[in-house]
Amino acid sequence: MRHVISALVMNEPGVLANVAGMFAARGFNIDSLVVGPTENPDLSRMTIVVTADDNTLEQVRKQLAKLVPVVKVRDFKETAYIERDLALVTVGCTPEQRTQVTQIVDLFRGHVVDVAKGSVMVEITGTVEKIEAFIELLRPYGIEELARTGVIAMARGTQNAKDRTPVEDKSKKRERRLDAGPAQALPPS
Questions:
Q1: Parts of the chain with a pLDDT under 50
Q2: Can you spell out the DSSP letters for 124-172?
Q3: Rounded distance, CA 131 to CA 121, Å?
Q4: 5, 30, 133, 149: most buried, per Cβ within 10 A?
């Protein structure tokens, strides 16, 4: 079964190696691993996509939560969430085929980001399934180069509210935010 896991980690050297090493030590192939900054400069968000059975993955999730630099771990299974992947694809095409390629790009709400004499580079974002379908339609034209970011994911708005500490008064919340300065407090674990 495919699992999308989000982990808030401390933004410090070696965290990525620790997390990847933990998965490798348990014999898991990571389908996608993306790390990027969050709204808090002290934290990064890792989005990890793996294929594993529920019981094994639960053990891995618990081990991941025990790593010192990991602040919070969340498996999006049975949760409403949004996931996106980004791809840049260079398609070899003649000037005559360019119109057909651009129509496919428009259907998938992609963007042409570069045009050369014998090729077109396009950008597309969406779910993994959408990008795979897009690539398959472009394959007959000749894909010269392909780069993908990997999956990023976040819980939908109503799901995120469950993770936050309730604040009784909005003015107090604003005061806390103003007092926090550039180094915000870490979220509750």
A1: 161-189
A2: EEE-HHHHHHHHHHHGGG-EEEEEE---EEEE-HHHHHHHSPP-S-HHH
A3: 15
A4: 5
Residues 66 and 95 in one domain: no
Q: Give the pair of three-digit tokens for residue 119.
A: 């090729």
> What's 42's domain CATH number?
3.30.70.260
What global pTM score does this model have?
0.73
Domain housing 138: 82-152
Residues 9-25 pLDDT 10s: 999 999 999 888 888 88
* Tokens describing residue 176: 């806390």
Q: Yes or no: say if 19 and 7 are a contact pair by the CB < 8 Å rule.
A: yes
> Is the sign of the CA dihedral 164, 165, 167, 171 positive or negative?
negative
Q: How far is CA 34 from CA 5, 19, 37, in A?
A: 11, 12, 10
